[in-house]
Input
Amino acid sequence: MSKPLITGYNWAPDEGRGLVRDMRVRWALEEVGQPYDVRHLNWGEQKAPEHRARNPFGQVPAYEEAGLVLFESGAIVHHIAETRPGLFPEDPAGKARAIEWMYAALNTVEPPVWETIIAKYIDGKENWAAARLPSVLGRLRERLGELSARLGDAEWLDGAFSAGDLLMVQVLRHAEGSGILADYPNLPAYVARGMARPAFGRALADLRAGLTGKPPADWPY
Amino acid sequence: MSKPVITAYDWVPWFARGQVRDLRVRWALEEAGQAYDVRYLPQGEQKAPPHRALQPFGQVPTFEQGGVELFESGAIVLHIAQTWDVLLPDDAAGRARAIEWMFAALNTVEPPLSDYAIATLFEEDKPWSRPRLPAVIERINERLDELSARLGEKEWLDGTFSAGDLLMVAVLRMLKGTPMADRHANLTAYVARGEARPAFKRALAAQLAGFTGAPPKGYEFLDQPPAEAS
Output
């Protein structure tokens, strides 16, 4: 199989914490033991026509392999799990449930996580931001509480570590800035188990090694 | 193959009729030509323990068939596509791209649209609803402009109609009645092509026919649109 080429940034606002979505793809590739190359973009280049041809929404990551060009981190992780052993259970029902958790991470848990990030960091300067925040955090609490109840004392969401856990851990890492994740103690422990995986560590180290760029001159924060 | 059982509500507020996410699953099953049964939940039961055992987030739809129990409409649509061998191209690269559009619909396009629903329906009476709206609309328009540019003059997003188109059309239908609805003629026409599919029409009719329940106490005012809007 030819070596995939993914797209990441050489600088991003998360200061090397591995919250940008190429981290999901790097982690998945490390889990299945697939070496890869990285095309690093300067911040801003993601909106240029050359990259938009790969990703119409002007974001990272993109994934290129033997003529196949993919965007959407969830779809790329799915493709990696589908084509290499390690991230999906072998039985069809278990695989369907792993995919269920991938969608749950991205379509049910991530939206209120992002809403919280927008509310705190982008809308934060607005004079109504403080009054609105409890309503936003209420929606996030509802989802975190439900996820926490389902996870219970289990190590992973459904049997062995899967692509569903990989995406859920990355989404929850983004929720840490909300300040309320620790109210659901099994969730930070779950995140810590994910981050303790050697593949996670390798992915993060490689991501950080690629951060050789600078913030744009007009970066407002 | 045994008949799948899905869950849906027997009542939702007027503005949600034709938009509840079991529509996506019904549509996929209709495209597959697979008959199905529906277990209807009165409002509130989705949060009770029996349904939570199937759906930890207390939502619909769920899907049960021959020992497979699933939640998340996107995951169920993919399961249907793979099990009945419909809605996905035969070649591996084409399949990967159809799945790419499924995730794009649910993880890139739907979140800003849901934000508009939060602002105009759930937070409508809050003092921040109006001042916040321009930024919400700007985020939606950015995504619509990008999607429109990629779709161009094509009939569907990538070759023949796929599970990616099914979810994208279902998501774009959320724009109906909003100021962003007709921003791009090619997206309006794309949604209309999706809605013209016989399988979609059957799915929509079936969802609407299932609303036979009564509103919960205190929610009677949401049973019909306000007079000035009707």
Notes: The longest strand of chain A covers residues 5-9. Strands of chain A lie at 5-9, 37-41, 62-65, 68-71. Residues 185 and 198 of chain A are 23 Å apart (CA to CA).
